[in-house]
Amino acid sequence: MNKKTLILIGFVILKFVLQYVLISPEYDLQRDEYLHLDQAHHLAWGYLSVPPVTSWFSCLILLLGNSVFWVKFFPALFGALTLLIVWKTIELLKGNLYALILGALGILFSCLLRLNTLYQPNSLDVLCWTAFYYIIIQYITTEKNNWLYFGAAVFAFGFLNKYNILFLLLGLVPALLISKQRKILTKKELYFALIMGFLFILPNLVWQYRNQFPIVHHMKELAATQLVNVDRLDFLKEQILFFIGSFFVILSALFALLFYKPFHQYKFFFASFVFTLLIFIYFKAKAYYAIGLYPIYIGFGAIYLSEILDNGWKRFLKPVFILIPLLFFIPMYNIAFPNKSPEYIASNPEKYRKLGMLRWEDGKEHQLPQDFADMLGWKELARKTDSIYGLFPKTENTLVLCDNYGQAGAINYYTKKGIKAVSFNADYVNWFNLNVKYQNLIRVKEFNDVSDELAKTGAFFETSLFGAEITNKYAREYRTTLFVFKNAKININKRLEDEIKKVKNYND
Questions:
Q1: What confidence tens digit (pLDDT) does each residue in 349-363 have?
Q2: CB atoms within 10 A of CB 473
């Protein structure tokens, strides 16, 4: 085993260790993670929230025991593979050991540490972007047509993971068209590869068609409720912060792609970078959508810097570029991860406020960053739901109905009573079991909606009670309330069917 391999293994091990130690044990899983894990119980070729790939990994996690260790393992793995591909890219482009170390540090000590703590499609999305760019470099370097098929497969897999990878294509195609590499469009193998990729994603497209293209409804809702609050200037600021320790490495890459002779055949990567960012800005995309764009450019920049710093007085700058990612990681460690208690963050908000971390999707400032608040209160909710559920003599005809997917997913993940909580929110609208004739209801309501719940819903039941509420004041679900309704006077199933039809009718 040579020196390079040992160093690479060291980076990979450090990557996994960091992903596990950067979250304080007082935090639960994050809201979205519960939904993705629940998809393992409802396999399909598509979902209202995401394409199907996440559910495949959720199935694997379920087979492995569904523990938090495995939930955190896969995003860490995707991050480690992203680092590996950048390493291999640098080797492919004849980068030396310094370039390899600089590139690995740039990937390791970056926003990917935060991204890879969460079981969401985003970690795999970044990996697929990086792998696709690597395959393009392989094709240009070797001109072997098999790389076209690999590229189609990776893109299709990325598409089935997160539709965000379409932005890669939208930025890459015009860049190819204005470059000498447009000769690729004359290759018949390219079109065979495109057909192969289309066949891979066809089942998901069929699912979208059969379900009235929920992605269109989802994007409209996203634009109306979240993207409307996106500031384009803030988008650009956050791009700098994502890989702040490698900012000059990325700038060096863009310069080298234009003027460094060994990169002449890859010049279109500069235009692709610009086009992709402009498209993101035009659509007012969330800043993190663009993270997958950067890792491959860290590879280019590391190679260029290793060359220009190898002569004369510039050699003294080599340690500086190695130290920069490490130095920026220190403040990142203190702010970017849920490794401080909620009490500490609430008492020391200024450094979080300066970085805009307290501003949520609703455009308002709160005590904790939104992702952190979304990792609190879930075990409490599940525990209290279990306690109430166990009081019913016949639990099989008791429905647990939640306001949002986070509540339903958390209850289903942590329950000791085998509860199958549902909601009219997100994918849960498709997961109601209407074969059971429900007589009792446990209603989980967000605080803003609880004012007259006992009177309004209680009119349809013989007994109505206040059950419990979430008491963690730092949780996004703070004061979420559980109501208990026994012995229905109405046909609950009929009401459910009507509401499901209403929710599914996107045109209403």
A1: 998 888 888 988 777
A2: 13
